[in-house]
Specification:
The protein is α/β, with parallel strands linked by helices. It has a single domain, classed as Dihydropteroate synthase-like (TIM Barrel, Alpha-Beta Barrel). It contains 10 helices and 11 strands. α1 crosses α2, α2 runs parallel beside α3 and α3 packs parallel to α4. The structure holds ligand 7PM. The site of ligand 7PM has 19 residues, from β8.
Protein backbone atom coordinates (compact mmCIF):
# COMPACT_ATOMS: atom_id res chain seq x y z
CA UNK A 1 0.00 0.00 0.00
CA UNK A 2 1.31 3.46 -0.84
CA UNK A 3 1.74 6.09 1.82
CA UNK A 4 -1.28 8.28 2.59
CA UNK A 5 1.20 11.18 3.00
CA UNK A 6 3.31 11.27 -0.15
CA UNK A 7 6.44 13.43 -0.12
CA UNK A 8 5.53 16.12 -2.60
CA UNK A 9 7.79 18.23 -4.79
CA UNK A 10 7.77 21.99 -4.33
CA UNK A 11 9.35 24.82 -6.29
CA UNK A 12 10.08 28.52 -6.11
CA UNK A 13 11.31 30.64 -9.01
CA UNK A 14 13.54 33.71 -8.76
CA UNK A 15 14.56 36.33 -11.32
CA UNK A 16 18.24 36.09 -10.35
CA UNK A 17 20.68 33.32 -9.42
CA UNK A 18 20.05 31.83 -5.96
CA UNK A 19 21.73 29.04 -3.94
CA UNK A 20 20.56 25.67 -5.28
CA UNK A 21 18.78 27.36 -8.19
CA UNK A 22 18.75 25.87 -11.68
CA UNK A 23 18.42 28.11 -14.75
CA UNK A 24 15.11 27.57 -16.57
CA UNK A 25 13.29 29.65 -19.20
CA UNK A 26 11.27 31.18 -16.32
CA UNK A 27 14.22 32.12 -14.11
CA UNK A 28 16.24 30.33 -11.46
CA UNK A 29 14.22 27.50 -10.00
CA UNK A 30 14.72 25.85 -6.63
CA UNK A 31 13.04 22.44 -6.31
CA UNK A 32 12.73 20.38 -3.12
CA UNK A 33 10.87 17.33 -1.89
CA UNK A 34 8.91 17.16 1.35
CA UNK A 35 8.93 19.80 4.06
CA UNK A 36 11.91 22.17 4.31
CA UNK A 37 12.94 24.21 7.34
CA UNK A 38 13.12 28.01 7.50
CA UNK A 39 15.21 29.10 10.50
CA UNK A 40 14.19 32.25 12.38
CA UNK A 41 16.92 34.83 12.90
CA UNK A 42 15.73 37.79 14.96
CA UNK A 43 18.03 40.78 14.90
CA UNK A 44 15.75 42.84 17.14
CA UNK A 45 16.86 43.87 20.62
CA UNK A 46 13.43 42.78 21.94
CA UNK A 47 12.92 39.45 20.11
CA UNK A 48 10.31 37.71 22.17
CA UNK A 49 11.74 34.28 22.81
CA UNK A 50 15.44 34.89 23.29
CA UNK A 51 15.53 38.29 24.97
CA UNK A 52 17.55 39.80 22.12
CA UNK A 53 20.56 37.54 22.61
CA UNK A 54 21.19 37.62 18.86
CA UNK A 55 21.00 41.37 18.51
CA UNK A 56 24.75 41.70 18.12
CA UNK A 57 26.13 41.05 14.64
CA UNK A 58 28.56 38.33 15.67
CA UNK A 59 25.93 36.50 17.68
CA UNK A 60 23.46 36.75 14.77
CA UNK A 61 26.00 35.34 12.32
CA UNK A 62 26.96 32.52 14.65
CA UNK A 63 23.29 31.63 15.09
CA UNK A 64 22.74 31.70 11.31
CA UNK A 65 25.73 29.45 10.67
CA UNK A 66 24.54 26.99 13.31
CA UNK A 67 21.10 26.85 11.66
CA UNK A 68 22.66 26.37 8.21
CA UNK A 69 24.90 23.55 9.49
CA UNK A 70 21.82 21.96 11.10
CA UNK A 71 20.12 21.78 7.70
CA UNK A 72 18.12 25.00 7.38
CA UNK A 73 16.90 25.46 3.81
CA UNK A 74 16.25 29.16 4.27
CA UNK A 75 17.04 31.70 6.97
CA UNK A 76 14.42 34.35 7.73
CA UNK A 77 16.07 37.54 8.98
CA UNK A 78 13.82 39.99 10.83
CA UNK A 79 14.71 43.46 12.13
CA UNK A 80 11.30 44.55 13.33
CA UNK A 81 9.31 42.55 15.85
CA UNK A 82 5.86 41.78 14.43
CA UNK A 83 4.67 40.34 17.75
CA UNK A 84 1.23 41.38 18.99
CA UNK A 85 1.44 44.78 20.67
CA UNK A 86 4.87 45.66 19.25
CA UNK A 87 5.61 49.25 18.31
CA UNK A 88 6.71 49.95 14.73
CA UNK A 89 10.44 50.49 14.10
CA UNK A 90 11.66 53.29 11.77
CA UNK A 91 12.85 52.01 8.37
CA UNK A 92 16.44 53.25 8.80
CA UNK A 93 16.77 51.42 12.14
CA UNK A 94 15.42 48.22 10.57
CA UNK A 95 17.84 48.51 7.61
CA UNK A 96 20.80 49.15 9.94
CA UNK A 97 19.98 45.91 11.78
CA UNK A 98 19.42 43.79 8.65
CA UNK A 99 22.07 44.97 6.18
CA UNK A 100 25.26 43.76 7.93
CA UNK A 101 23.70 40.36 8.65
CA UNK A 102 22.47 39.84 5.07
CA UNK A 103 25.77 41.05 3.57
CA UNK A 104 27.72 38.62 5.72
CA UNK A 105 25.41 35.67 4.94
CA UNK A 106 25.00 36.33 1.19
CA UNK A 107 27.02 33.89 -0.87
CA UNK A 108 27.05 31.41 2.01
CA UNK A 109 24.97 28.90 0.08
CA UNK A 110 21.70 29.29 1.97
CA UNK A 111 18.49 30.96 0.83
CA UNK A 112 17.76 34.18 2.71
CA UNK A 113 14.41 35.80 3.37
CA UNK A 114 13.73 39.15 4.96
CA UNK A 115 10.79 39.55 7.35
CA UNK A 116 9.57 43.12 6.84
CA UNK A 117 6.44 45.16 6.16
CA UNK A 118 8.21 48.10 4.49
CA UNK A 119 9.03 48.32 0.75
CA UNK A 120 12.11 50.51 1.33
CA UNK A 121 13.46 48.00 3.84
CA UNK A 122 12.76 45.11 1.45
CA UNK A 123 14.62 46.92 -1.36
CA UNK A 124 17.68 47.51 0.84
CA UNK A 125 17.57 43.90 2.07
CA UNK A 126 17.40 42.51 -1.50
CA UNK A 127 20.38 44.69 -2.46
CA UNK A 128 22.24 43.33 0.57
CA UNK A 129 21.66 39.71 -0.50
CA UNK A 130 18.15 38.56 0.49
CA UNK A 131 16.33 36.36 -2.04
CA UNK A 132 12.74 36.29 -0.79
CA UNK A 133 10.52 38.87 0.90
CA UNK A 134 8.47 37.61 3.84
CA UNK A 135 5.79 40.25 4.37
CA UNK A 136 3.36 39.41 7.18
CA UNK A 137 0.87 41.90 5.73
CA UNK A 138 0.64 39.75 2.57
CA UNK A 139 2.03 42.46 0.24
CA UNK A 140 -1.02 44.65 0.84
CA UNK A 141 1.20 47.66 0.11
CA UNK A 142 1.44 47.99 -3.73
CA UNK A 143 4.95 49.39 -3.21
CA UNK A 144 6.02 46.02 -1.81
CA UNK A 145 4.74 44.18 -4.90
CA UNK A 146 6.68 46.63 -7.11
CA UNK A 147 9.92 46.12 -5.15
CA UNK A 148 9.68 42.31 -5.44
CA UNK A 149 8.75 42.43 -9.14
CA UNK A 150 11.60 44.83 -10.02
CA UNK A 151 14.16 42.76 -8.14
CA UNK A 152 12.81 39.39 -9.32
CA UNK A 153 12.44 38.28 -5.71
CA UNK A 154 10.00 35.59 -4.64
CA UNK A 155 7.54 36.57 -1.90
CA UNK A 156 5.78 34.99 1.04
CA UNK A 157 2.15 36.10 1.11
CA UNK A 158 0.86 35.73 4.68
CA UNK A 159 -2.64 36.39 5.95
CA UNK A 160 -3.01 38.82 8.84
CA UNK A 161 -6.22 40.35 10.17
CA UNK A 162 -5.62 43.93 11.32
CA UNK A 163 -2.11 45.13 12.15
CA UNK A 164 0.52 43.77 14.54
CA UNK A 165 -0.10 46.32 17.31
CA UNK A 166 -3.79 45.49 17.76
CA UNK A 167 -4.49 42.28 15.81
CA UNK A 168 -4.99 40.02 18.84
CA UNK A 169 -7.51 42.32 20.59
CA UNK A 170 -10.70 40.81 19.08
CA UNK A 171 -10.07 38.62 16.03
CA UNK A 172 -13.37 37.94 14.22
CA UNK A 173 -14.40 35.98 11.14
CA UNK A 174 -17.60 34.69 9.59
CA UNK A 175 -15.80 31.67 8.10
CA UNK A 176 -12.09 31.85 8.90
CA UNK A 177 -11.01 29.15 6.43
CA UNK A 178 -12.97 30.58 3.50
CA UNK A 179 -11.83 34.14 4.23
CA UNK A 180 -8.14 33.33 4.72
CA UNK A 181 -7.93 31.01 1.71
CA UNK A 182 -9.76 33.48 -0.53
CA UNK A 183 -7.40 36.26 0.59
CA UNK A 184 -4.29 34.17 -0.07
CA UNK A 185 -5.43 33.04 -3.52
CA UNK A 186 -6.48 36.56 -4.54
CA UNK A 187 -3.22 38.10 -3.33
CA UNK A 188 -1.13 35.35 -4.98
CA UNK A 189 -2.82 36.00 -8.34
CA UNK A 190 -2.41 39.77 -7.96
CA UNK A 191 1.25 39.51 -6.97
CA UNK A 192 2.05 37.09 -9.81
CA UNK A 193 0.21 39.27 -12.35
CA UNK A 194 2.41 42.21 -11.26
CA UNK A 195 5.54 40.23 -12.19
CA UNK A 196 6.70 38.61 -8.95
CA UNK A 197 8.19 35.28 -10.14
CA UNK A 198 6.72 32.99 -7.47
CA UNK A 199 5.01 33.00 -4.09
CA UNK A 200 4.77 31.02 -0.87
CA UNK A 201 1.38 31.11 0.88
CA UNK A 202 1.06 31.28 4.68
CA UNK A 203 -2.16 31.13 6.74
CA UNK A 204 -0.51 33.36 9.37
CA UNK A 205 -1.14 31.46 12.60
CA UNK A 206 -1.71 33.88 15.49
CA UNK A 207 -1.92 36.97 13.30
CA UNK A 208 -5.38 38.24 14.22
CA UNK A 209 -6.53 34.70 15.10
CA UNK A 210 -7.66 32.87 18.20
CA UNK A 211 -6.47 29.32 18.96
CA UNK A 212 -9.77 28.05 17.50
CA UNK A 213 -9.17 30.03 14.28
CA UNK A 214 -5.65 28.57 14.05
CA UNK A 215 -6.96 25.03 14.55
CA UNK A 216 -9.64 25.49 11.88
CA UNK A 217 -6.96 26.66 9.43
CA UNK A 218 -4.72 23.70 10.28
CA UNK A 219 -7.60 21.25 9.74
CA UNK A 220 -8.19 22.85 6.33
CA UNK A 221 -4.51 22.79 5.35
CA UNK A 222 -4.93 20.11 2.63
CA UNK A 223 -7.24 22.50 0.76
CA UNK A 224 -4.41 25.08 0.64
CA UNK A 225 -1.50 22.68 0.07
CA UNK A 226 -3.45 21.02 -2.77
CA UNK A 227 -3.29 24.26 -4.75
CA UNK A 228 -0.71 25.77 -7.07
CA UNK A 229 1.65 27.35 -4.51
CA UNK A 230 3.94 25.96 -1.81
CA UNK A 231 2.61 26.61 1.71
CA UNK A 232 4.60 27.85 4.70
CA UNK A 233 3.38 27.24 8.27
CA UNK A 234 4.78 29.05 11.30
CA UNK A 235 3.70 28.09 14.82
CA UNK A 236 7.09 28.10 16.50
CA UNK A 237 6.80 29.03 20.21
CA UNK A 238 3.55 30.92 19.55
CA UNK A 239 0.74 31.50 22.00
CA UNK A 240 -1.34 28.60 20.67
CA UNK A 241 1.44 26.15 21.60
CA UNK A 242 1.48 27.70 25.07
CA UNK A 243 -2.28 27.35 25.39
CA UNK A 244 -2.62 23.84 23.94
CA UNK A 245 0.51 22.48 25.62
CA UNK A 246 0.11 24.40 28.88
CA UNK A 247 3.54 26.01 28.55
CA UNK A 248 3.55 29.64 29.72
CA UNK A 249 7.22 30.27 28.85
CA UNK A 250 7.82 30.77 25.11
CA UNK A 251 11.36 29.36 25.07
CA UNK A 252 9.99 26.03 26.42
CA UNK A 253 7.52 25.48 23.55
CA UNK A 254 9.72 23.62 21.03
CA UNK A 255 8.23 20.13 21.62
CA UNK A 256 4.69 21.38 20.96
CA UNK A 257 5.88 23.44 17.99
CA UNK A 258 7.50 20.31 16.54
CA UNK A 259 4.30 18.28 16.96
CA UNK A 260 2.29 20.91 15.12
CA UNK A 261 4.87 21.29 12.34
CA UNK A 262 5.11 17.51 11.75
CA UNK A 263 1.33 17.51 11.35
CA UNK A 264 1.54 20.42 8.90
CA UNK A 265 4.24 18.59 6.92
CA UNK A 266 1.99 15.54 6.62
CA UNK A 267 -0.79 17.80 5.37
CA UNK A 268 1.49 18.95 2.56
CA UNK A 269 3.23 22.04 3.99
CA UNK A 270 6.33 22.81 1.88
CA UNK A 271 8.12 24.68 4.66
CA UNK A 272 7.91 25.35 8.39
CA UNK A 273 9.28 28.51 10.06
CA UNK A 274 11.03 27.51 13.27
CA UNK A 275 13.41 28.47 16.08
CA UNK A 276 14.67 24.91 16.82
CA UNK A 277 16.19 24.05 13.43
CA UNK A 278 18.24 20.94 14.32
CA UNK A 279 15.29 19.30 16.10
CA UNK A 280 12.93 19.98 13.19
CA UNK A 281 15.38 18.80 10.52
CA UNK A 282 15.96 15.53 12.39
CA UNK A 283 12.27 14.85 13.01
CA UNK A 284 11.25 15.76 9.43
CA UNK A 285 13.92 13.40 8.04
CA UNK A 286 12.55 10.53 10.12
CA UNK A 287 9.00 11.39 9.09
CA UNK A 288 10.04 11.55 5.43
CA UNK A 289 11.56 8.06 5.68
CA UNK A 290 8.35 6.75 7.26
CA UNK A 291 6.29 8.34 4.49
CA UNK A 292 8.43 7.16 1.58
CA UNK A 293 6.98 4.11 -0.18
CA UNK A 294 9.19 1.03 0.26
CA UNK A 295 10.16 0.60 -3.38
CA UNK A 296 11.74 4.08 -3.37
CA UNK A 297 14.08 3.22 -0.51
CA UNK A 298 15.59 0.16 -2.21
CA UNK A 299 15.73 -3.43 -0.97
CA UNK A 300 15.66 -4.15 2.75
CA UNK A 301 19.08 -4.93 4.17
CA UNK A 302 19.36 -8.50 5.36
CA UNK A 303 20.46 -8.82 8.99
CA UNK A 304 24.25 -9.11 9.37
C1 LIG B 1 5.53 37.18 18.83
C2 LIG B 1 4.56 36.45 18.16
C3 LIG B 1 6.73 37.48 18.26
C4 LIG B 1 4.83 36.01 16.91
C5 LIG B 1 7.01 37.02 17.02
C6 LIG B 1 6.04 36.31 16.34
C7 LIG B 1 5.40 34.42 11.04
C8 LIG B 1 6.19 35.26 10.29
C9 LIG B 1 6.29 35.87 12.35
C10 LIG B 1 4.67 33.36 10.41
C11 LIG B 1 5.62 34.15 8.36
C12 LIG B 1 7.49 34.78 15.20
C13 LIG B 1 6.32 35.71 15.05
N1 LIG B 1 5.50 34.80 12.34
N2 LIG B 1 6.31 35.13 8.96
N3 LIG B 1 6.74 36.17 11.11
N4 LIG B 1 4.83 33.28 9.07
N5 LIG B 1 5.70 33.99 7.04
O1 LIG B 1 7.22 33.64 15.59
O2 LIG B 1 3.92 32.59 11.00
O3 LIG B 1 8.63 35.18 14.98
S1 LIG B 1 6.69 36.81 13.74
Amino acid sequence: MSSPWPQRQHRLTFGFPVPGGVRTPDGWEVVWTGCAVMGILNVTPDSFSDGGRHAGLEAALAHARTMRAAGAFMIDVGGESTRPGADPVPADVEVDRLRPVLRALAGGGVLLSVDTLKPEVARAALEAGAHLVNDVSGLRNPGMVAVCAEAGAAACVMHMQGEPRTMQHAPHYGDVVAEVHRYLRTQAARVRAAGVPSVLLDPGLGFGKTVEHNLALLRALPDLTGGEWPVLVGASRKGMIGRLGDVPVASERDPGSLALHLHAARQGAAMVRVHAVAEHVQALRVQAALDTPRQETGPLQSPA
